[in-house]
Amino acid sequence: MKTNHTFTLVKSVFIICIFMFVSLLSVEVKAATKKYQFNVEVKNVSRLCHAKPIVTVNGRFPGPTVYAREGDRVLINVSNHAQYNMSIHWHGLKQYANGWADGPAYITQCPIQTGNSYVYDFNITGQRGTLWWHAHILWLRATVYGAIVILPKQSVPFPFPRPDGEHVIVFGEWWHADVEAVVKQGNALGLPPNMSDAHTINGKPGPLFPCSEKHTFAMEVEQGKKYLLRIVNAALNDELFFAIAGHNMTVVEIDAVYTKPFTTNALLIAPGQTTNVIVSAIQTPGRYFMAVRPFQDVPIPVDNKTATAIFQYKNIPATVIPTLPVLPLPNDTNFALSYNQKLRSLNTPNFPANVPLKVDRNLFFTIGLGKSDCATCLNGTRLSASLNNITFVMPETGLLQAHYFNMKGVFRTDFPDKPPKAFNYTGAPLTANLFTSKGTRLSKIVFNSTVELVIQDTNLLSVESHPFHLHGFNFFVVGTGIGNFDSSKDPAKYNLVDPPERNTVGVPTGGWAAIRFRADNPGVWFFHCHLELHTGWGLKTAFVVEDGPGKDQVVRPPPKDLPSC
Asked: What pTM did the predictor assign?
């Protein structure tokens, strides 16, 4: 009897141990909840020999990096102590059925007014990599921005050799003057506002600028080790080239999607885009400049000064003068086109490229610069911009609220699938008939339908490169080209196997880009040029994706603390 009793006791203890082990295991892999407090506050910051008050998050410029893991829930309480209304966009996060957490002011929410708070509550599902966050109202993202680092799930490796270390590198722009005052002045005159006075790397312009020795970012590396650089272009209006003197980079990810690795001596990165690269510290130990400078292949004024940071080997004294990298020429169109052609989705069983092969809805949007009447402006007109000849008018309440509560008169869903008139889009510059129609007009999309959107640059006033960002989705860039899109010939050249998957696409100067996505995320999703100048001029619209049939395929109810207008 005693033996049986002992055996039963041992068996019970063993079962309890197994249960505890399984419980611990389940706790370990269970998604975590990450909480952040963002205090939006004004702080004096000194750059280029003088100080000015800027809007910051937690007094930091750039703001704090948000760290999370794939599968986590993230709660970010944004408290607005600044004089401006505020909203923050979590750029590249899909926010499934949860547009309330997306952030663009008057699109998915009314802004957070001074003295108020709002909790952005979202899950990170099926995404890992580098994204970023920024203010999405006025031009406040000039100083209100930071990185988002999403680590893979526990025990899930990178699809490339594990780096020995990693660094976040965020590019930005700096103005001597108050940015909002600069924009107001430009708008009052009907002209572009003054361009920035410097570019920055992690908020610092580097030692090629006056009073900037201490305003230089430096990252220390050890001989023989590999480093992952998580690079974000948070600049407002400039596509940027980036290089490290004496070191190649291996591109492994764009916009939080793994790519087929390729090696390059320089990167091109548009506003809104992110790029992860591996850099091996295998050169003679020393100090090497990292440098960033704009790409602009049309004669439009641009802040063309070079910002620098330092790639510094351990134990090398700061007295050693760094060497500068050779960047592509500012107008090197060939480099830009060939670089983007090298971008390919990884497309493995673990990370497939689920490109829509059948298209339910074909859209063709033309980009146009133009004019609108302005009695107080120089010449009685102001510059504007349009998609399919429609300059978007921002509403006075959130479009998502209007959609969810079926509010009448806020927007129309008759945005045209193609421009009102076909013409030689990229021929000689067109300077007549530049006036556009205006309206808050959206494009309605059936849930789970597949969409192909061709974005065509035009020579209305001038051709120009435009980075377009779609909220709520990733898309596949199945084709790009120079000149006019030819619907009878160009689709035959599409890459439908491993095209790059991203959330922001650069439409080439005087050319076109074709993207495909599945409209499986119900809600109202902003689509706009990520050049802040053009967004402000009306180069934007939004998609209304209808609810699906399932109970988890409908827009979830709004949170109780959603700001009111």
From this structure: 0.94
